[in-house]
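User: I'm preparing a small set of examples for a lab meeting where we compare how different chains pack in three dimensions. I only have the primary sequence for this one, and I'd like the structure in token form so I can line it up with the others. Please keep the answer compact; I'll paste it straight into my notes.
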Amino acid sequence: MPKSPVARLVPKVPGASGASRRQQYSASTKRALVEVAAQLFTEQGYAATSLDAIVAGARVTKGALYHHFTGKQALFEAVFEGVETSASKTIQKALRGHRDPWDKARAGLGAFLEVVQEPAYRRIVIQEGPAVLGYERYREQEERSTFANVLEIVRSVVEAGTWELDEDMLQTFARIFFGAMSTAGETVSTDPDPVAAAQRVETAITFILMGFQSLASAGVDLPTSTPPRTPTPEA
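Assistant: Understood. Below is the structure token output for the 235-residue chain.
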């Protein structure tokens, strides 16, 4: 069975004698469980994957599984965190390659759209995550990984213009874009043709970014408050 990218996120313990060897064996067991679970959850889905199949694939006992995890949901959460962390690192790597904020935004978008086409991300994060973890836990996990990247992109784009936004307004912008990116990821991952869907999403979001870039280049100020509504004449 090929190794899952989440397996490398379980820390390894250097080989040594005594207690260190036990730690090494424990870490190796946990890594094997996460690796096999990631593979089976991706291929079969959460409901169709049994703990018996996971321990058989990892070649450990069910007691060893319960030593590390309280059950299948806890194991799924570990896999989910691993997939999200791996995706976040991929996006961060793309961001580091660009100093221009607009190039950074487009690079981050491109990396994200590649990530959401990966089978593990599509199945575990987009399709299974909300139902297995529950909405609140799912959003909490996403915010710990994806939101930080979105905030970095929004901050660099806003600073490219003449706009001076306080942290609350910056967070508001970031959360709006975060919601848009989450919807974009779901759109791509559930489409029968994810490649074509990713191209459409990239075109749409690039169009929005170009609009922001034009505003920044023209020195247009963002409104600081909602304009008063015009009273409706009484009949």
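A couple of notes for your slides: The mean pLDDT is 84. Residues 161 and 217 are 7 Å apart (CA to CA).

User: Perfect, thanks.
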